[in-house]
Amino acid sequence: MTVSIENEHIRATFNTKGAELQYITGVHSNTEFLWSGDANYWGKFSPVLFPMIGALKDNTYVYENQSYHLPRHGFARDLEFKIEQIAEHEILFTLTHTAETLENYPFEFNLGLRYKMFGASVCCTYEVSNPADKELLFSIGGHPAFAAPLNNEGNYEDYFLQFNNDEELTYHHIVDNLVSDKITTLQLTEKRLPLKHELFYDDALVFKNLKSDSISLMNTKNYNGLNFKFKDFPYFGIWAAKDAPFVCLEPWCGIADSMQHNQQLKDKEGIITLAPKENWQRTWQVTCF
To answer: How many Cβ atoms sit within 10 Å of the Cβ of residue 38?
Structure first.
């Protein structure tokens, strides 16, 4: 089921499957800022990554001496969320553990995705609470894909990413879906990364030490674009499917397994440990112009 909220500037449309943001549309310009979801390239728009980010080594982790199996990016993106709250400019989707999730993820959880709109901005807040009497171990992050070019006007190479704090980018390569020790450093001119398809031919660029907390998607032909803000996400990914007309800006609290990982969940890099009855949240924001 889809549901929308809007104001005088933008309209945001969501699917209850995965609580996925699928459209951000300019009310007056009809500009679509998210990508089209063409399954010939990649059939998603902005999935939530929970309770794991990226791939597990052999799709397996070990917790309390028992092995469990989860697919890449976890299961939340493929499940139906409930709409718990809806207002003119705000909507909350919720998901909780079930007998099925407990089979391969032995933790009770309450997950909320709260979207709030103001001006030409949409905020997405991940809200996690632990209802159990034992620790909750999880990762969570975003995977929004933004159209490039916007309105199908111009070329991919007209676009660039403008970082607010980085003069160079050092990223880890993904090999067989896992984080490798291979590292590449890109020198930026005026904190800009020009987009080109071949950047992503070897999968995502994975950052562990990004200094920026704001990235703008802009182009050399006009002033249309967007600004993506994120805070307190220790990892970040940038990705596009091969030769696809989009770029994903992915703020992560967690990361795929390394090729050397021992598969113990408590030893997993970036894993979050939430104490019983505690709450946790993080927010990212996209502003369209």
So the answer is: 12
Q: Which residues contact 85 (CB under 8 A, 6 or more apart)?
A: 91, 92
* Token code pair at residue 1: 């089921």
SS (H, E, C) the chain: CEEEEECCCEEEEEECECCEEEEEEECCCCCECECCCCCCCCCCCCCEEECCCCCCHHHEEEECCEEEECCCCECHHHCECEEEEEECCEEEEEEECCHHHHHHCCCCCEEEEEEEEECCEEEEEEEEECCCCCCEEECEEECCEEECCHHHCCCHHHEEEEECCCCEEEEEEEECCEEEEEEEEEECECCEEECCHHHHCCCCEEECCCCCCEEEEEECCCCCCEEEEECCCCEEEEECCCCCCEEEEEEEECCCCECCCCCEHHHCCCCEEECCCCEEEEEEEEEEC
Q: Sheet harboring 10-15: ordered strands across?
A: 2-6, 10-15, 20-26
pLDDT in tens, 130-170: 999 999 999 999 999 999 999 999 999 999 999 999 999 99
Residue type, 97: H
Residue from 57, 84, 49 nearest 263 by CA: 57
What single-letter amino acid sits at 147? A
Q: How far apart are CA 89 and CA 84, in angstroms?
A: 14
- Give the predicted TM-score (pTM) of the model: 0.97
Backbone Cα Rg of the chain: 19
CA–CA distance, 114 with 90 (Å, rounded to integer): 7
